């Protein structure tokens, strides 16, 4: 998949896009490596190791990736993917991805420790007792401060 100097001279394209094409080629190589890694493990074997939420995430990412690749394929064939049903499919998948994200966020949200909260409130409130009744820190009731 690598571009050699011979390819560059025989293919006519604007030199300004060479860096973009090289980056695209590198990205394709990364996608190829990820797909090989995913395909090296059977799906059932992989799913056994994941909890249901992680399974849903894997399925959604997989189907989104496949549809995205189909989007790119359509574009390379001169077909406008925005006018193709694949657009609605990608939007539908994104909706489910957002639902899974909401569930994940709710799981991560901090839970209220009722015991700790009641101890905090109890200790934060002032309770009069024998030691504190005549304490100079608390102003005596009924007395007013003199104004200058």
UniProtKB/TrEMBL annotation:
InterPro entries: Exosome-assoc_fac/DNA_repair, Sas10/Utp3/C1D. It comes from the Eukaryota. Keywords: Cytoplasm, DNA-binding, Nucleus, RNA-binding, rRNA processing. Residues 123-148 are annotated as: Disordered. Monomer and homodimer. Belongs to the C1D family. Plays a role in the recruitment of the exosome to pre-rRNA to mediate the 3'-5' end processing of the 5.8S rRNA. This is Nuclear nucleic acid-binding protein C1D. The lineage of its organism: Eukaryota, Metazoa, Chordata, Craniata, Vertebrata. The gene is C1D.
């Amino acid at each position: 998949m690598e571009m050699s100097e011979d390819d560059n001279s025989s293919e006519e394209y604007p030199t300004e896009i060479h860096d973009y094409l090289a980056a695209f080629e590198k990205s394709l190589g990364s996608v190829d490596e990820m797909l090989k890694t995913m395909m090296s493990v059977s799906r059932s074997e992989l799913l056994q190791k994941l909890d249901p939420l992680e399974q849903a995430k894997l399925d959604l990412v997989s189907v989104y990736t496949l549809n995205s690749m189909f989007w790119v394929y359509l574009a390379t064939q001169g077909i406008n993917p925005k006018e193709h049903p694949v657009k609605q499919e990608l939007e539908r998948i994104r909706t489910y991805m957002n639902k899974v994200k909401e569930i994940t966020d709710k799981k991560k949200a901090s839970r209220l420790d009722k015991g700790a909260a009641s101890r905090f409130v109890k200790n934060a409130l002032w309770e009069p007792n024998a030691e504190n009744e005549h304490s100079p820190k608390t102003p005596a009731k009924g007395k007013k401060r003199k104004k200058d």
